[in-house]
Design a protein that fits this description.
This protein has 261 residues and is an alpha/beta fold. It contains nine helices and nine strands. Strand 2 (31-36), helix 2 and strand 3 (55-59) form a beta-alpha-beta unit. Helix 1 (16-27) crosses helix 7, helix 4 packs parallel to helix 5 and helix 8 (233-244) crosses helix 9.
Length: 261
Amino acid sequence: MQVKNKKIIVTGAGSGIGRELTLQLLEKGAHVIALDINGKELEETKRLANHNERLSLHVVDVSSDEALNKFKEEYDEKYSELDILINNAGIIQPFVNVDKLDMDTIYKVMNVNFYGPLKLVKLFLPSFLKRKEGHIVNVSSMGGFFPFPGQTVYGASKAALKLFTEGLYAELLNTNIKVTLVLPGAVNTNISKNSNVEIDSGNSNYKMLSSKKAAEIIIKGIEKDKFKVYVGKDSKIMNLMYKFNDKKAIKLINKKMNKKN
């Protein structure tokens, strides 16, 4: 679906990929409804967009059913039908094994990364089905198909989003509603800061894709109605490695991560 003149929701629009998606979609003539839990960061996105009149801001906690229901009511009052839903918001967990994670953190990661996108799809899919048109874009992760030690719950949340999106694609295959699954590799974002997770500076030498480039790849995939969009060479390579020999791939990544620690 071409994005020009389309109404598009972008979650996590206050930083990283979400901010870049917002800025680039505006440049392409879209109307963007930007959601983020951090109002200050949303205002910075607005400033970077030169206060574009096609941008509207909503401070929303996507992990809260109540907040999402309230947002849907506001949306119906203020805007016309939605064209594209981009579920981009996400957080990581602290870099510890499952036995050291408290349940509150586990629930938070699952609520932001999986149940939030699921809830938004449930809220807007009925109008897509009624109009027989729309596009759902869910941003999963390389961690959703490849296990990384210390990010097991994060990976589980992204794996759930991945399979949910694939199932949604299958259910909507005979409709005009498009579904895109985005699988980013390592992208230079503020996800650790926004997740209140400290990252060892020793890991900073890993070459990451810029948020700007990641957003370009995602938008190109949306406009081409792609089912799956792999963002970054590492995502493509890890996918092939895991399919070819999963045990060997896991041992390899364990070895590399142990060297960093």
